[in-house]
Every structure is written in C-alpha cells, then in structure tokens.
Design goal:
This protein is of the alpha/beta class and 1539 residues long. Helix content is 50%, strand content 9%. Strand 17 and strand 18 form a beta hairpin.
C-alpha cells in the first residue's frame, strides 16, 4: 500500500481538510476518526509531531490509533507503507481477529476481548508492535506469541475462522462447543445405541447453547432442620421432566478420560469390570477400548448416571483431580436441564464464588490464608466440605461441639490434614508467643468456640447464649482481635469465610456476635458468606442488614448446592499431580506423600520425584506464559525454584548453566552413602550472589530419585523438632528407611549445623529399630550452604566441604555466553537480566558500577521512590537476603492496597524498578517482599549515592530510624526489625579464624567516615526504636569502651542492656568494660613516674566490680538448662552463641591476675625482690596481715596500707578463689568432651597462660628455705612436705583431674608425682586435716595406676592388691556420701570383677559415683557429656585397663587429629580392628530401658555413651558392648544386640 499524499504539497503544509482526506483515502479509517482530527484542528504541521498517545487523547480507540501511527511514520520517512503479512489478514473484521486469536493462537479470552473492544481489525493488527500489545495490558509472553503466529501466516494456508456465538448475559445460553467438540459430538451421535438414537443432533447443539444458570429453591423448615443427603447434592430437583443429553454426557466423559495415561485407562477398565455389582460392564466389552469407545459404553450402559459412575471410578483409581473437574461439570449439567421458569436473577454464582476466593484469578494462592467461621453441621453435609482440605486455613472458628466426633467437620478434616485443637483462651498473651506455641501458619488451628462434647469437663460444656455471653464471649472477641491484628494476618492478604450450615435465626446466636466482632476489627470486604440454603441466607442477610447496616449480597453465595461449592473450589488451582506426590523408597520403589504427612513436617519443604508434574496443561498458553515468566524472573535475580529445573529438564536442548563445582558436590554427596556415619554434615561455602544456593538446589533436584530430599525452611524451630521431622521423612510409608538429603540454606555458622547433626543422630537412634541390612539407608546427609566472605579459607578448615567463589572459569564463561544467545531467541532484552549478566561478566565491578551510575543518573532523595530505593540499597548491602514487605512499600509510597488489582509498586519505582524484584517470603505465614536483584548491585548503588549525591550510609540509616511508619504494627515488622538490628550489630568473621570483627560492617564504615558522634546518634535513636532489645545498648556500650575508652558512658549503656534483659551476655559486657578500664589504667600508670595511692583504690574497686559481673554472668549461664533458641539479643558477640560455658570463670581469673600485677608493683610487694615477693605471697595466702608486712614508714605506704585494709574482704581471698577456679576449669577440660571449637581452644590457652603466672608467683620454693635447712635441721621434714606440695601444685597434680591429664604426658613426670605422693603417704601421721589426708590417698592411688600404664616397671608402682587394700580402707572412711566422685571412680577400676572373682559392691559404687558426680559436677554435666579415660581391655590386673591416648597412638600421626576426634565423637572408632583387638567385649542385657553388664550373678548398671543406643519399647534383650570408665560412671560403647 502506498502512502500517497492528498496534494503535491509536503505533508507538513497540509490543511485540516488534507489531513482528513489522507485519513479517509489512504489510511482508510472510519469517518468518525477522521472527523475528530478536524474537530481538534489538526493540520499537517501539527500532524508531524503527533504520536500514538496524542491520537488516543482524541478519543480514538487503540486499533485505529496504532494504524494511523504506523502510516504517519511511513509518511515522515517518505516511504511506502508495506504490510509484511498476507493481504487477507488486512481484510479481517475485528470479529474475525477475535476468532483467529481464540481458535488458532489459543490466546486468553480476556486478551481477545480487549483487542475487540479497541476496534483492532486486520488492517490495524498488521501494524501492531509488541509495545502496542503491552499498552493494552497483554502480557509479554502472549504478545510475543501473537506476533510470531502472525509471521507464520505467510508460510501457512489461510486459517478457517468459525463464528463465535453471542454470550450476552440477558440470554440464557452457554458458549457453543468448539469445532473439535462439534465434530466429536457428531461422531458420537452416529455411534449411540438405539435407545439414544432418538435424540437428534440439532437438539444436542441447541442444548449446548443454553447458558448455565444458578438458581435456588426455597427450602422448607423441615429440610433445614433435618438435611438429607439427596437434598444437599442436588437441592433443586423439580418435577419437570427434561430428557438428558446423552451425546453431551459421552463428550464430557471422553474429554475427562483423555487425560488418563494408557496404564491409568487400563486401571479404569479393570476397576469397572471388577466392581462387586451386577451393573458393571463386562470385561470383554472394555478390553482394548480407547477413550471414545469407553465413553460410549459408559453412557449406553448407565444412561444418565454415567457421569456419576465415571466420577466414582476415577476416585477409586486415585484420579481425584479429574473426579473433581467432572463433579463440577455435573453440577452445570444438572442446571442446564432445569426448566427456565425456576431460574433466578443472579445466574453465575459459580463464577462469583471463584472470584471471591481468588480475587478474579484461577488459584487459591491469591490469598495467603483463609479464616473459616462455621456453625453446626450434620454428617450428610460434611461429605461436601472436602474443599476445606485444599485451602490454606489459618484457623477455623467452630461452633459445633460435636465437630471432633465421627461424622463431624473437624473429624473429617483431620482424616487428611493436620489440625491442632484449641480453645479461645489460648489466644491470650504476647503475639509472638501465641504464634510459636500454637504452631500458627504451619498447621491449622481449629478453635472450639462453644465447647467440645469429647472432653468431659465443665470448661468444655456447650453453653446457651446467655451463659456463652458471660463466660466465653470475651475470649472469642480476643481471638477475633488477634486474627485481625495486622501483625498476624496482613490486610488484603487473607479472607474470612462465614460458612453457615444451619440457620442463624436471631441475634442471640454466638456466631452473630462473632460477625459483629469481625466487622469492628476489619473491613467488611474481607468477609464473605457461604450459606447452605437460601432460607438460611435470607435470615442471615436480614440480621446483618438490620443490626449492622451491612449489605452482604455482593459477598455472599447461597444458590449453589454444597456439592457445587465443593466442586467449584476443588477445580481451582494450585493442583497437585493426579498420581499423588511421590518419594523414592527401598528396592527402587516409590511411595505417595500424603498431605497429612506433609502437614506434620512443617519445617521441611519436601522435593518429590514428580515435583511440578501435571500442574499445568503444558500445551496451553497459560503454561507457556508461566514458563517464560519463571525463566525471566530467575535470570533477573529471583531465587531459583524447582520450576526452573523442571522446565529445563523438559527441554533438553536448553542449557541450564552449572558451576564447575556441581559435579564435585554431587560426587561428595554420593560418596557419603558409603560412609558408616548415620548423619553427615557437608559444607558448601560460597560468596554472596555467586550461585551457591542455585548449585545446591540443582544437585538436590538431580538426586531426588536417590534420596528423599527436603529443604529446611523453618530455622527457628528447635533442632530436636527438626530432627524428629527428618526422621519421619526417612521412614515415611515404608518399613525400611530411605536416605535423606537435607539442604540448610543461608546458614552463617557451621556450629548450628553441627547441633542439628547431633539432634538428628540422637533422634534417629532413639526411634531406631533398623537391621544391619537397613543401616546403610538409615542416613541423613546435610548439605549446609554457608554464605561467606572467605569461602576458600573456610573450606580449608572444614572437611568434608566444597566452595565456590565470585570468579568464573573459562568453561563457565563459555556456558554463560552460549546461554545469552539462547535467551536472545526467546526473550526481549535479556541484557536487562542483570543477575545473569553480572555472572556472565565474571562479576566485573566496572559493569556493575556503570549500571548503578546510569540508573541513578537523576536520583533525587527528596522523592519517596528514591528514598525507598536508598533504603533497599543499604539493607541489601549489609543484610543478606533482606527485603521490605510490599505492604510497607505501598504504605510508604502512599498507595492503597486494592484487591483484584495487580501490585503496581514496580511502576511507581521506575527507573529503579529494573534493579528490583518481588519475592514471596515464607516466614510469618508468607508475604511478598521487595529487594534489589543482586548484592553487588546494592553495594554499587550505595557507593554511587555517596560519590555522586553525597548521601552517606549514616544519612540513609538515620532516615530509616526516624520513619515512624517503619516501626508501626505490621505483619512483617518482626523480620524487618531484625534486619535493621542485624545491620547495626552483626559482626562478620575474620578471614583468619573463628574470631569476628570488632563491629558490624555498617558501624565500622560510619565510624571511619564520621566518628563517634554519628555512631552514637544512630545507636541512641535505634535504642529508642527497639526498646525491648538489649542488643542495641549493648553494642553501643562495646563501641564506647573499645573504640572511645569512655568507660563511664559505656557502663551506662551496658547497665541499660542488663535492665532490658539480664543474661550471661549482658552481664559479661559490664565485666568486659571494667576489665578494659582496668587494663587501660595499668598501662597508663606504667608510664607515670610518681605514685598515686588513689589509683590503687580506684583499680581495686574496678576489679571487684568486674569479678562480681563475671561471677553473675557465670551463675546465669550455669542456671540455664537449655540455651535460648530464639533471639540474637542473647549474643555478647565476644563469643559464639550458646558457648558461654566457662567464660565467666576465665574472665574472673584474668581480673585476679591483673590485681596481682597491680599489687606486685607496690613498693613493699615488688616482685623483683625475693623477700618482698614472699611478703606478697604470704599476704595473698592469708598468712600475713598487711600491717605486719615490712615497709618504709612514709605517707604513700601508709595510704596504700589503709586502702588495702579497706578491701580486706576482697584481696586476701583472691588467691584461694583463683586456685578453686583453676581446679574447676581443670575438671571441665579433663572430664568433658570438647567441641573442637576455636573459642574453646582459646579459653584453654588463656587458662594455661594464667596458670604459668600462678606457678611463678605461688609455686616457687623461696631461697630462705635453703638457709633454714642449714640452720635448723628439725625443719627439714616440714620444708620437704611443703616443697612436695608446691611441686604437685605446679604440675596441677594436686587434683584428681590434674593427675588424669598425665595419661597423655611423659612417664617421668607422673613417676616424680607418684614419688611425691609416696613421700606424703609416709608422713600422714603428721596430718591433722583429715580431708587433705583422704584426698592425697586417693590421688596417690590414681597416680600409681597412671604410672603403671605408662611405665609398669617403675620402682614406685605398687601392686594392685596394695592399692586395693588402701582404697578399701579409704572407702570405709568416706562411706557412700563423699562429695566428690573420685574414690568411687577408683573403686570401679580396682574392684571391677574378673572371670575368676566377683565383687558384689561394684553396683553400689556405680550408684555412689552417679550421685556424687550429679552433685559435684551438675553444672558442667548440663553442658557436655563425659569422656572415658580408661577402657576395659583383655589383660589381667592393672594391665586390663587401656588408656585413650594408647588407643589413639595406633592412628597418630598418620591420621589427622580432627578426623580421629570425629571417629570418637560418632562412635565409629569401635569399628576399627586396631581398637577392638585391644578391648574386651562385655556381655549384658537391657531391662525396662536400662542397660546392665553381666558378671555371674552381678547386674552392674551401665549408661550408653551415645544416647539412643537402647531401643524404645522396654524390650528385654541380650547385648554386648565395650566398657569405658568416666567420672560419672560406666559407659557402654558399640552396643550390639545378640539377636
């Protein structure tokens, strides 16, 4: 077509008439369009600047506007307007365009309708570009497809277009069948049996044109009071006789059966001819029949009942989704057969119900949660309420006391789903506590609002209205208030359904009070009513209108039967696979994962074999659009989901880029199947944003046939609860276990994952009754995905593990290049998929910086959109995977949340929206949040804001803290608040170890840029926002004492933190401030030349306060039975969570030695002079008063003396307390299992260093002793005793634990220790102190045993008989009530029965050691389990004991100590022949859950070393095990059941 001009003049000089003529003759638009140009005085010089928007402003519809714009462009270019499409397309009317879109493009009807409304005829359509479709709200996917189909028309014959029948609502007609359905119906009609051939094809088509109407019939009171099953399923049966349309029934059955696979169709046939009824179709007729023949046979055999029989058969073969679809169609079939005179005004209540539940969509996912209020039901109704199982119910408010009984609604629901049964009073208290305690969001809360008949007590009786009003109404109102609290359910994201199954006749009905409570608390738009009958509805409407002024008509369903309601809801998405969700099981079999079982594992997102399958019609436009959207969002930056892997598996030609480490991780996991460990932790360390999570999930996806796979989605649950759910998954639906692969994503600490390993091991062992054959599959592999800034360094310290970094290999870069080429073929502008492009650029900083610079070119912080983007940039830079909720963004931007309208925050956020992504956050019941696509983009944007707009991070932080809106009540407040706190207080680990940086990265940056004043302002404001959080004032206190050395101000904030929450960590911070202050004072005073006694006074007071703070912190740590799981407030950040253990003791020692250092610098205590040092030692040992210390008589010394006398309660006891603390810590490090953490090792090193100082100060023999020996020989013995004891103290051999430590030291040392004790034994008649005499005897016996094992031929070793006699005498002296377990430990060693002799007292000493250790070591034993230092070997006498170091020697140094420790930790060491060949296996038995060793008639109690090694069920069984001797009793290792 040529764009000829109406005159020879250039078009810029056309008159208005010339423009009109051009439009009519060349563009060929309707005269009314051309007239509008004249009316608006559009001449040529104006036309030249017109664009589409200007033309639309004239009131011209979109179709002609696009056509005019296209011709105008050709006019400007001076070129011909040539169509790229066949000429017949330009001749299409707008009706034919609509037909083509529906019948050939298979576009959604809403898009075809939209183009039809905008007068898009064929000559307009050929001018359309993608942007024109997008302007008409056609999504990108369908737009691209329409254009592609248009282009294909050049290669295809002209399509046949069928007329679309009129579907106006004033005619009672349904849409005509499609061409396929018509031809199918005609084919069917020719094959019908004789009984049906009378029905003419014309009648069939005429019947199909009837539009389904949704009438109701007035129910009588009798019907309401005693509902019957037949009335519920088809309430509106009339006497009018209408012949059923058998042809249509056949068509419907065939359409349903077409969805079955060949095997499922065979199963359908098999069930049909095997039914126990005379009416079933014989086998011979069904065998080998296709779906058409089967449908004809069903209709011919069963007539009008064929649909119902088909539905029943489908349910029996577990094709429930197809059965639901058929049930829905059956309801419509019945309505089409009803006489026209009973049809009512509101025809489409099925569509209305669908719209109310889905916000105009097709899926129940449009609402996050549903709340149902239901009154009394009868068993006949319950069968039609199956749809409740499909809905995401937050809670059900049930007014039927019999609901939990068989036949009741709650009972029916619990058969297939999990519900926790509650009463309204349980909804009192703190919101967070209620959510946690009642397991809300994870499982349905079923609340009985007026009693329960199954509980026989007064508080659960059903009440009449007056009593209910007095006793229960307040609790129910509180429950309603809780539900409507936006902290619980986000406004606009939940729906309240009043399901009225019985009449509500008067306002004196509790359910009406609940309705009034709801409309007080929330918008009426959130409430809909579904009534069982019209009579129930009419009374309900009358009540609500008269008493509340409510018009509930637009939000009420009353014309549908319950069967139709059920079918309508069940036909909505989301859909599960028709075959059920499948899991792998033993012997290459599969099991079905039932919904109820999945409900019982709310912490896990379970990945099934057939994940994503049969959810969509994969040939539909809907699936095509969904697939494109999923792919686009992933490559833009959304977290990967299972659909990404599924769609790639469906199209093998499409590349899904895998990092090189994919194969290594997969191999590492598979290798662990051969590992004997029951639970294994594998770490995957990765830089943020480099694909670590994607890699881990991809590996899991590809291993889902070999493992039962799950992602830990709720990390707030106690580890023990997670372990139970993992154990349930392992053993689900099978007698034999299946291996589990558990992904823990975004973990920042490996310590938490180790805790989870321990919990899983313990739980599996507790519930285990597996055989040897099953043991290999009784395995849990945890893939711990850890975000780290130094993944390579972390990898080196953890084994087994893998790592990936933000650096691509050449192969990876090639794969990304190839993928970009693929994306260009299917997507518009894939270069805007920034997360993908960042990785493709190999994380090039320049690329990211340029993106940030270009996007922020016109940034203006005064605009709300810019402010919100800056907030996100700050948050996403400093807090991984953080977001701001969609609702909060809308509130901030001043946008109203409107239901049924797509979220348009992204439009408001332009031009920044290219950097933003919207994701669903699973926590708090699920909500939508907005974040920046990639961590590096957020970081680059923050730098650009500072560089180009002088906007510092402190300015953005203060802007957030000053916004009242962000701290108002919101459902997502908790998570957002945690993100802000995390940004301020969370410190990163250093690359070179387990220790962390001093402050959070944000505070570190603000300090370096602006210093104290700004940091303090931020913390002070944050403290006013987070008034219940101890973390903020605690962090400010740390900043002030570490960086600013402002100890008074730091103390003020630390005390505030302690006031908010007194725990070990807040008390420790106070102690740390005092300690830092004390060190600072000491360093300053060392530089001073003059002495100031007041400094001594100040320092002693500081030291006293520090020790009190640390002592209180330790007491609080000791009082905690279980460390708190739920808060970050409890972290001091000076040590990892849950590891305070003995830190208070260590800090007390540090303070004591700082005091010793201060005293040693006093003129009369100077350490450099031996005599003065001896004065100091005597003073600290409480052997000399300060007034008796020799010193010069001067004013300074006198003042020092006065100060020391003032602290007489503190200083003289310090040495004794230090020694007791050393002994306590010695026991801790000796008796208990270590955790191999850097923190524990650091504590141990600190204590060892301090003990060296202790030895130097208190354990050296003074020179005066030598002089006294020479001058007074009578004192030699006393001096010898003193020196021997000093030597034992120096070697830490003056305690039982200290001697045990020498098992792993040179024999010469323990030999000298034994010699010292032998000497002291000979001098015992000199001892008056009986306790000391007993203790030294016990230590002497132990030193002999240790010496024998290290150097059996030593002259100092005594025989076993000698030691046993000495022990027997000691035991007689101390009895069974000795406060320490030491003598009973020796009794177990020396009196342990041998094959030739028994000692009947051994059992008594087992009881005694347990009681004694429980008293003496209770605080320590709560924290860790004990270890055995000796094991029972195969020798005789003392030779039968094998020490742990001796066993270790067989592996060292070839095996790294870390791996060896792991073998001991999980018990696998006893599978090593080098160990078992040296140990004696003891016979025993289990009785009532207890373990005993057998020696003749002796039954000796033993404890399993690993909890859970005894089977549940109190079974009496013969067992055998290896025996270890621990400080709290006998331990059994490697317990084996003989049968």
């Amino acid at each position: 077509m040529t764009s000829a001009k109406p005159t020879s003049l250039p078009f810029q000089k056309w008159t208005e008439k010339d423009v009109h003529r051009w439009l009519m003759t060349e563009v060929k638009v309707h005269e009314t369009c051309a007239d509008k140009f004249c009316e608006e005085e559009v001449s040529g010089d104006i036309l030249v600047v017109y664009n589409k928007a200007d033309i639309l402003d004239l009131g011209i519809k979109h179709g002609p506007a696009v056509k005019i714009t296209s011709h105008l462009q050709s006019l400007r270019e001076g070129s011909e307007h040539i169509s790229q499409f066949p000429s017949y397309v330009e001749n299409w009317t707008k009706e034919q365009v609509k037909q083509w879109l529906l019948q050939h493009v298979k576009a959604y009807s809403k898009y075809a309708e939209r183009l039809h409304e905008e007068d898009v005829s064929g000559d307009c359509l050929v001018c359309f570009k993608k942007e024109d479709f997008l302007d008409l709200e056609v999504k990108r996917g369908p737009a691209v497809k329409i254009l592609a189909e248009l282009r294909q028309l050049k290669k295809k014959p002209e399509p046949t277009l069928q007329p679309i029948p009129d579907t106006s609502t004033d005619q009672k007609e349904a849409p005509n069948p499609t061409q396929h359905e018509l031809s199918l119906a005609r084919a069917t009609a020719t094959k019908q049996p004789e009984t049906q051939s009378k029905i003419e094809a014309d009648n069939m088509v005429e019947s199909k044109s009837e539009k389904p109407q949704l009438p109701f019939k007035k129910a009588s009171k009798e019907e309401i009071q005693q509902p019957k099953p037949k009335d519920l399923g088809a309430r509106r049966k009339e006497t009018a006789t209408v012949l059923p349309d058998f042809t249509k029934i056949t068509v419907e059955i065939k359409k349903i059966l077409d969805n079955l696979s060949k095997n499922d169709l065979k199963l359908f046939h098999f069930y049909e001819y095997n039914k126990s009824t005379d009416r079933s179709i014989p086998k011979g007729k069904l065998d080998g029949k296709d779906t058409m023949d089967t449908a004809q046979l069903m209709t011919g055999h069963y007539g009008s009942k064929a649909l119902q029989v088909t539905q029943d058969n489908l349910k029996e073969i577990n094709q429930r989704q197809l059965a639901y679809e058929l049930e829905n169609k059956m309801g419509q079939q019945k309505k089409q057969c009803l006489p026209k005179d009973i049809l009512k005004k509101e025809a489409n209540q099925g569509d209305k119900l669908k719209n109310l539940l889905t916000c105009g969509g097709n899926s129940l996912d449009n609402y996050d949660r549903f709340v149902v209020v239901v009154n009394k039901s009868c068993p006949e109704q319950v069968q039609y309420l199956e749809f409740l199982n499909k809905m995401k119910l937050f809670c059900v408010l049930d007014f039927d006391p019999s609901s939990v009984a068989p036949g009741g609604l709650c009972h029916s629901y619990k058969e297939s789903r999990v519900a926790n049964l509650h009463n309204p009073s349980q909804y009192h208290g703190e919101t967070d506590s209620i959510i946690k305690n009642l397991n809300l969001y994870k499982q349905t809360s079923w609340v009985f609002c007026n009693g329960r008949h199954d509980l026989d007590n007064d508080s659960n009786k059903e009440l009449d209205y007056n009593n209910w009003l007095r006793k229960s109404c307040r609790d129910v109102e509180q429950l309603v208030s809780f539900i409507c609290n936006p902290e619980v359910l986000l406004r606009g994201r939940s729906l309240i359904i009043f399901l009225l199954l019985s009449p509500v006749d008067t306002e004196t009905n509790p359910i009406f009070d609940v309705y009034k409570s709801f409309i007080k608390q929330t918008e009426e738009e959130r409430i809909i009513s579904v009534c069982e009958s019209q009579s129930i509805y009419e009374k309900w409407r009358e009540l609500t209108q008269e008493k509340c002024g409510s018009n509930i008509d637009p939000r009420s369903i009353y014309e549908l039967t319950l069967s139709e309601v059920n079918g309508t809801v069940m036909a909505l998405g989301p859909f599960n696979p028709s075959s059920g969700r499948l899991l792998p099981s033993s012997d290459s079999s599969f099991v079905v994962l039932k919904q109820k079982d999945e409900d019982l594992m709310p912490a896990l997102e379970i990945v099934c074999l057939n994940q994503c399958e049969n959810t969509y019609d994969e040939n539909s436009q809907e699936f095509h659009d969904f697939r494109m959207k999923v792919e686009e969002e992933f490559y833009r930056g959304r977290t990967v989901n299972w659909w990404n892997f599924y769609v790639c598996d469906k199209d093998k030609e499409k590349l899904f880029v895998k990092r090189d480490k994919y194969k290594d991780v997969k191999k590492m996991i598979r290798f662990q199947l051969r590992n004997s460990n029951m639970c294994v932790l594998l770490n995957l360390f990765h830089h943020p944003g480099c694909g670590g999570t994607t890699l881990a999930m991809h590996v899991m996806w590809d291993l889902r046939r070999e493992f039962r796979c799950a992602v830990l989605k709720d990390k707030t649950l106690p580890k023990s609860e997670v372990a139970i759910q993992v154990n349930n998954l392992m053993k689900l639906e099978s007698e034999r276990p299946s291996p589990v692969l558990l992904l823990v994503d975004d973990s920042k600490e490996t310590g938490d994952a180790y805790d989870l390993v321990n919990s899983i091991r313990q739980t599996v062992e507790d519930y285990s009754n597996t055989t040897v054959d099953d043991a290999q599959n009784c395995k849990v592999i945890i893939l711990n995905c850890v975000r780290s800034h130094s993944p390579r360094e972390q990898y080196m310290r953890h084994n087994p593990s893998q790592f990936i970094t933000a650096s691509l290999s050449p192969d990876e870069q090639n794969h990304f290049e190839k993928k970009l080429g693929e994306l260009k073929e299917t997507h518009e502008k894939p270069e805007n998929f920034y997360s993908f492009m960042i990785m493709k650029s190999n994380f090039d900083e320049k690329y990211v910086n340029d993106l940030a610079c270009n996007t922020l070119e016109n940034f203006d912080f005064s605009q709300k959109e810019a402010q919100l983007f800056a907030f996100l940039a700050l948050l996403n830079t400093y807090v991984a995977e953080s977001e701001i909720s969609l609702s909060l963004c809308k509130d901030f931007l001043g946008m109203k949340m409107i239901q049924w309208i797509e979220d348009n925050v992204m439009d408001r956020m332009k031009p920044y929206s290219n950097f933003l992504i919207m994701e669903t956050v699973e926590e708090w019941g699920g909500y939508k949040g907005i974040r920046i696509l990639h961590h590096s983009i957020a970081s680059a944007c923050l730098k650009e804001l500072e560089r180009s707009f002088y906007l510092k991070v402190s300015d953005i932080t203060m802007a957030i803290l000053y916004l009242d809106l962000f701290f108002s009540v919101q459902v997502v407040k908790h998570r957002f608040m945690l993100s802000i706190q995390q940004m301020l207080i969370e410190r990163q680990r250093r690359k070179d170890g387990d220790e962390r940086e001093l402050f959070s990265p944000l505070i570190g940056k603000i300090h370096s840029q602006q210093g104290r004043k700004t940091v303090e302002e931020i913390f002070v404001k944050a403290s006013s926002r987070f008034v219940t959080s101890a973390s903020i004032p605690q962090a400010l206190a740390r900043y002030l004492y570490i960086n600013e050395h402002d100890y008074p101000e730091a103390l003020k904030w630390a005390e505030k933190a302690k006031t908010i929450k007194k725990n070990p960590y807040t008390c420790d911070t106070i102690g740390q401030i005092h300690k830092s202050n004390l060190k600072s004072n000491i360093n300053r005073e060392k530089q001073e030349t003059s002495c100031n006694p007041d400094n001594l006074n100040t320092n002693i007071k500081i030291a006293d306060n520090a020790i009190k703070a640390f002592k209180r912190a330790q007491e609080l740590a000791d009082e905690q039975d279980e460390p708190e799981e739920d808060t970050a407030d409890d972290e001091s950040d000076d040590f990892p969570r849950k590891s305070y253990n003995v830190f208070g003791y260590v800090s007390m020692l540090e303070i004591a030695f700082l005091v010793f250092e201060i005293l040693s610098r006093l003129p009369f205590f100077e350490e450099s002079e031996p005599m003065k040092k001896r004065y100091l030692m005597s003073f600290l040992e409480n052997k000399m008063e300060i007034t008796n210390v020799h010193k010069e008589d001067n004013e300074i010394n006198n003042r020092y003396t006065e100060i020391i006398k003032e602290h007489a309660q503190f200083l003289p006891n310090l040495k004794t307390e230090a020694k007791e603390t050393f002994d306590h810590l010695n026991g801790y490090f000796t008796f208990l299992k270590g955790n191999n953490s850097e923190f524990d090792s650091k504590n141990h090193r600190t204590v060892c260093g301090l003990f060296k100082k202790y030895v130097a100060l208190f354990c050296t023999s003074p020179e005066e002793n030598k002089k006294e020996r020479q001058s007074n020989t009578n004192l030699n013995l006393e001096i010898d005793i003193q020196e021997k004891r000093l030597f034992l103290e120096e070697k830490q051999a003056d305690t039982f634990a200290g001697i045990l430590q020498h098992i792993d030291k040179p024999a010469e040392e323990i030999e000298r220790i034994t010699e010292c004790y032998a000497f002291l034994q000979r001098q015992q008649q000199q001892l008056i102190n009986k306790k000391q005499k007993t203790r030294e005897t016990i230590n002497y016996i132990l030193s002999n045993i240790v010496l024998y094992l290290l150097k059996p031929k030593s002259n100092y070793v005594k025989s076993q008989k000698h030691l046993s006699d000495l022990l027997s005498k000691t035991l007689q002296d101390v009895g069974l009530g000795y406060p320490f377990p030491d003598p009973y430990y020796l009794a177990l060693l020396l009196l342990w029965p041998s094959p030739t002799q028994e000692n009947t007292d051994v059992g008594t000493y087992v009881t005694a050691i347990r009681n004694s250790s429980r008293k003496h070591l209770s605080k320590l034993l709560r924290k860790r389990s004990t270890i055995a230092h000796f094991y029972l070997g195969k020798g005789e006498g003392l030779n039968r004991f094998v020490s742990k170091p001796k066993l270790d020697e067989t592996f060292l140094p070839k095996m790294p100590r870390g791996i060896l420790a792991q073998l001991w930790w999980n018990g696998d060491i006893f599978k090593e022949q080098r160990i078992t060949s040296r140990l004696h296996r003891v016979s025993g038995f289990t009785l009532e859950g207890q373990l005993f060793a057998n020696y003749g008639k002796l039954k000796i109690p033993v404890r399993p070393a690993l909890i859970g090694k005894i089977r549940q069920g109190f079974s009496t069984e013969k067992v055998s095990f290896y025996l270890g001797f621990a400080i709290n009793g006998l331990l059994a290792y490697d317990i084996q059941y003989e049968n």
